[in-house]
Amino acid sequence: MADRRARLALIFLVACGVGVLSGLFGVGGGVILVPLLVLLFGFEQHLAQGTSLVALVPPTGLLAFMNYARAGEVYWKVGLLIMPGIFLGGLAGGRIAQRFPPRKMQQIFAALLFGLGIWQTISALLSR
Questions:
Q1: Which residue in 29, 27, 47, 56 sits closest to 105, CA to CA?
Q2: Cβ contacts of 65 within 8 Å, gap of 6 or more
Q3: pLDDT tens-digit series, residues 8-20
Q4: What is the pLDDT of residues 71-125, one digit of tens each?
């Protein structure tokens, strides 16, 4: 029981850090929380993804959105145009993900993050 409480406390502390990063950079669940749940806590990829979605989309998404909207940092037209694609893509992505074994999902996810990291690094180094 003590080990379970310690694990939950550690997950809570990690989540606090992820929340800060989510508010700062607009990322958290897929980019930070999912790998940490897999690497630090031994979650399978699908379980980490589902847990991340339930934990981040409603509270963090809404609170971060409210802060950005209050600051005038929301391009409403584009955001509303993106929304149906995200909705339909999320449904399709969730179904497609269930067709892959957890290990394969972890490899695909790692490759995606690696590619985005390289792209972001090159972009940051080349921009003025």
A1: 47
A2: 74
A3: 999 999 988 888 8
A4: 999 999 998 888 898 888 888 988 998 999 999 989 998 998 899 899 989 988 9
DSSP 8-state secondary structure symbol assigned to residue 127: -
Handedness of CA 106, 4, 21, 84 (dihedral sign): positive
What gap in Å lies between CA 2 and CA 48, rounded to an integer? 23
Q: For 40, what's the count of Cα atoms within 13 Å in the CB-facing half-sphere?
A: 14
Half-sphere exposure (Cβ direction) of 27: Cα atoms closer than 13 Å: 10
57 in Cβ contact with 29 (< 8 Å) = yes
Domain count, the chain: 1
Residue whose tokens read 């005038």? 72
**Distance, CA of 128 to CA of 88 (rounded, Å):** 36
The residue range of the domain holding 75 is 2-126
pTM of the model: 0.67
